[in-house]
Design brief:
Chain A: InterPro entries: His_Pase_superF_clade-1, His_PPase_superfam, Mito_Ser/Thr_phosphatase. Chain A: This is Serine/threonine-protein phosphatase PGAM5, mitochondrial. Chain A: It comes from Seminavis robusta. Chain A: Belongs to the phosphoglycerate mutase family. BPG-dependent PGAM subfamily. The complex is a heterodimer of chains A (about 375) and B (about 450). Chain A is built from 9 helices and 11 strands. Chain A is of the alpha+beta class. Chain A has a single domain, classed as Rossmann fold. In chain A, helix 2 packs across helix 4 and helix 5 packs across helix 6. Chain B folds into 3 domains: about 55 residues; about 50 residues, no CATH class; about 240 residues, 3-Layer(aba) Sandwich (Rossmann fold), CATH 3.40.50. Chain B is about 35% helix and about 10% strand. Chain B contains 10 helices and 11 strands. In chain B, the strands form 4 sheets. A 5-stranded mixed beta sheet of chain B has the order 4-7-3-8-9, with helices on both faces. In chain B, helix 6 crosses helix 7. The longest helix of chain B has 26 residues. Classes of the chains: A alpha+beta (about 375), B alpha+beta (about 450). The interface between A and B is large, with 87 and 86 residues.
Chain lengths: ~375, ~450
């Protein structure tokens, strides 16, 4: 409740509360709208490739805006090149044209029940008492790039120092008060990719909060080329096209798996018929901030982090190389219970002193 | 405290009355003294005197303070509200009605064609065509090339060395990005401020805001030190810019205390003031007057973006060297052994023997330079700058949230490429100093 009012104060307005805005779009909490985009796309593509022939008449023209048909992702039957640099079949096509925002980006938007008042009340309840997911993406520390095998590409001494400082900073952020060991450290889980440098960074970070659950290393989060990057420095080579084709699907699947709103909480049934427009709906038992916010830490790699950030904010992912995440930087995204996403920090290295700031081989900022 | 002062006054009055006991206190002119018992010898009399003094001081406090103390919060707001100049933007326009809200909000299954005209209780704007019901079509930013294309001449300063063709080769890319001045822009949001008054001249930083500004100043000072120490690479901090609003000026002033004295602070720039830079997608129909405010501020925001974000001018030697290099490359690739001069005569090419060939023009250029600018301004302005500099749709500006005294960092290479190194960096602040205006810490959404 206080969090809601802080949000309203933040808007610095005495007008209608924010939830009234959300309340105008009517939704129900009884069922979801179906599969996530990636799964639907994958199934559709499998069906198409097995049954249809290679010739197709649908062409994506880069000059006319695309309307809301199909699913988000690579459109494999697109022909031609985007400004002569990248094949259109490997340009990420959003479900609705840029810069539209898809409310059902994670496939968990509830289907409207038809009763506007009920849907508004449920949405307001969810917004007030639902769980907000805070996802912090950490890039690994500086590592030894001289070897080819991944097991030998481990952190340097500087990289280990960076990871230690990052662990301290995360513990401080999530504990909520400096040096208070009794504060709840409600990190739900710590995820890590399957590569040695990320695993080593994660080990060092997790030593600062030993009681938190750690997931098995997930090879879906490994480094790769999530999509092409624009500006691309000329026409992309066949090697790049091939690499992007095989790695995009994996990284997109990792995105769909990790980025979605939290499971909804159900409004109590006897609250459905209250007359006071839902203002008397009894809150759930535990309304402390710790119960309504959960943290997740994902230790992975620069390209993956930048792609995740742009996809979560529904921005063109081909811009990923315009961002730059330093070693052991924090990228912090918030996903509200009603599905809204906010990026709070990207590439935060304020916890590292300037001599610890590196981007692989480059030190500091003068490069 | 005023109440203590009046108690003391009442007490002094009491004492004077007691002292005047012998000389006839009933002739004292003060109205309060008539209530006091002239002979305060017994304990009960003293007790009575005490209570009379206490009540009297309270009454006096309220009577006095009602006249001269500043008005209550609501009265203060009423004063500011009455004056159109100090009224905040969300009070300048008529209140949003339900019909207007319904008209401007999109449903999840939006139609493919844009709808026209919505009911509007306020003064009708000229063109009401909507972009899928999200915002006004005319307020939508139209990029020169459709997303996600990169516009090479985004700042109007393109030259031969950074055309699309020049940057298509690895060699061209490397040469143009590592020669010349790279501009680094650090955007700092002001600290936490008093949001109660509507007049901007009264919206100063809170104590926490001042603390945040101090910590940010220390952080930037360490960065500046590191920048100045680099011997191999030339780097310097150019200037500190600030907007014309009190909270930004205060933040800049406090930050500058921690930083070296040789960094100049430019005059406050009113163009950097807060406002609504672009419509919001997804929209916020709960906020009144968004369309009018965007109409008023959009042009100014784009102008101030162009004012601060551009690639550095290349030096004339670099451009000449680039032309020489390109000519030399053309000559080497040429299979024929003659050229046609501009006047039309045929000129044979003499290929110089290898040991006499002059050194390559690009190697004679001065080393690259790095120039840092610090701009202290406001959340909306920073987010708009980030979206525009990275050539992302500016309507997405509200999808970012930058905390108080956060640092955002944009780097513009000499060839026009832009790299964003951090957005909303708050690592230098402790958890207690992390605020987003009124929201403390991170456990809010």
């Amino acid at each position: 409740m206080s969090a809601f009012f802080r949000f309203a104060n933040r808007s610095a307005t005495k007008a209608l509360p924010v939830m009234a805005a959300a309340a105008l779009t009517s939704f129900a909490l009884s069922s979801y709208q179906g599969l996530s985009n990636c799964e639907a796309t994958a199934k559709k593509k499998e069906n198409e490739s097995s049954s249809s022939s290679s010739s197709s008449t649908s062409t994506v023209d880069s000059t006319s805006p695309k309307t809301g048909t199909g699913n988000a992702g690579f459109q494999r039957d697109a022909k031609g090149y985007f400004y002569d640099i990248i094949p259109n079949s490997q340009i990420f096509q959003p479900k609705l044209e840029w810069p539209m925002y898809d409310e059902n980006w994670d496939g968990r938007e509830p289907i409207p029940s038809g009763n506007d008042k009920l849907d508004r009340r449920k949405r307001r309840y969810l917004r007030k008492y639902g769980v907000t997911r805070h996802i912090i993406l950490v890039r690994h520390g500086q590592y030894d790039e001289t070897h080819k095998e991944d097991e030998k590409r481990i952190l340097t001494e500087l990289g280990r120092k960076q990871a230690n400082e990052t662990g301290k900073r995360l513990a401080q952020m999530i504990r909520g008060a400096e040096g208070d060991p009794d504060s709840p450290c409600n990190i739900k889980i710590v995820r890590v990719s399957g590569m040695a440098r990320a695993k080593e960074t994660c080990d060092i970070i997790a030593s600062h909060f030993p009681q938190v659950e750690r997931a098995e290393p997930d090879p879906l989060l490994n480094e790769g080329r999530p999509s092409h990057h624009i500006p691309s420095g000329g026409k992309v080579s066949d090697n790049t096209i091939h690499k992007t084709q095989e790695q995009h699907a994996r990284i997109e699947e990792a995105f769909q798996k990790n980025f979605h709103r939290a499971d909804p909480i159900a409004m109590p049934d006897d609250a459905l018929f209250l007359e006071n427009d839902g203002k008397d709906v009894p809150p759930p038992e535990d309304t402390s901030p710790a119960a309504r916010h959960e943290y997740e830490i994902i230790v992975c790699h620069a390209n993956v982090i930048r792609y995740f950030c742009l996809r979560a904010l529904q921005l063109p992912p081909e811009a990923w190389l315009r961002l730059c995440t330093f070693n052991c930087s924090l990228t912090y995204l918030t996903i509200r219970p009603t599905g809204g996403v906010s990026c709070r920090t990207l590439g935060d290295v304020g916890h590292l002193s300037p001599e610890l700031v590196t981007f692989s081989g480059h030190h500091g900022f003068n490069w | 405290m005023r109440s203590m002062k009046f108690s003391r006054m009442a007490g002094a009055l009491l004492q004077r009355t007691s002292r005047n006991n012998g000389t006839g206190s009933r002739t004292s002119t003060s109205s309060g003294s008539k209530l006091f018992l002239s002979t305060a010898s017994t304990q009960s009399d003293r007790a009575t005197n005490f209570w009379v003094a206490a009540v009297g001081s309270c009454v006096a406090y309220h009577l006095y303070d009602k006249q001269s103390r500043t008005s209550t919060l609501m009265e203060k707001r009423q004063d500011d509200n009455d004056n159109p100049e100090t009224r905040p933007w969300y009070r300048r326009y008529p209140t949003l009605t339900l019909e207007r809200m319904r008209g401007s909000v999109s449903s999840s299954t939006s139609s493919n064609s844009s709808t026209t005209t919505t009911t509007n209780n306020a003064a009708p704007l000229d063109n009401r065509t909507q972009f899928y019901g999200q915002c006004l079509q005319r307020q939508l930013y139209q990029p020169p090339a459709p997303y996600p294309a990169w516009v090479y001449d985004w700042d109007g300063k393109m030259n031969d060395s950074c055309t699309k063709e020049a940057l298509s080769t690895a060699q061209g890319l490397q040469k143009s990005s590592c020669t010349g001045t790279t501009r680094h822009i650090l955007l700092v949001r002001h600290g936490q401020y008093e949001e109660a008054p509507f007049d901007d001249r009264k919206r100063c930083l809170t104590a926490l805001g001042r603390k945040q500004a101090q910590l940010t100043g220390k952080r930037l000072a360490t960065l500046v030190q590191q920048i100045a120490q680099s011997k191999k690479i030339k780097a310097h901090v150019h200037a500190i810019y600030t907007s014309d609003m009190l909270r930004a000026k205060q933040t800049a002033w406090i930050m500058a205390q921690a930083m070296p004295d040789n960094i100049p602070i430019r005059d406050p720039d009113p163009d950097l003031n807060e406002g609504l830079p672009a419509p919001m997608i997804p929209p916020r129909p709960d906020l009144p007057g968004v369309e009018e405010e965007v109409d008023a501020q959009q042009e100014r925001m784009e102008r101030v973006f162009r004012k601060y974000f551009y690639r550095a001018d290349p030096s004339p030697q670099f451009l000449q060297a680039w032309k020489d290099n390109a000519a030399a490359a053309r000559n080497q690739n040429h299979t024929q052994d003659y050229n046609i001069s501009p006047s039309g005569t045929v000129v044979p090419i003499e290929k110089a023997p290898k040991q006499q060939q002059p050194p390559k023009p690009m190697s004679r250029l001065p080393p690259p330079d790095h120039e840092f600018d610090i701009i202290v301004c406001h959340g909306n302005v920073i987010r708009y700058f980030l979206c525009r500099a990275l050539q992302l749709p500016p309507e997405a500006w509200l999808r970012f949230s930058v905390f108080n005294c956060s640092v955002s960092y944009i780097m513009i290479k000499p060839n026009g490429y832009v790299s964003c190194r951090m957005i909303g960096d708050i690592g230098h602040l402790g958890y207690k100093e992390t605020t987003f205006s009124g929201a403390h810490g991170l456990l809010w959404s």
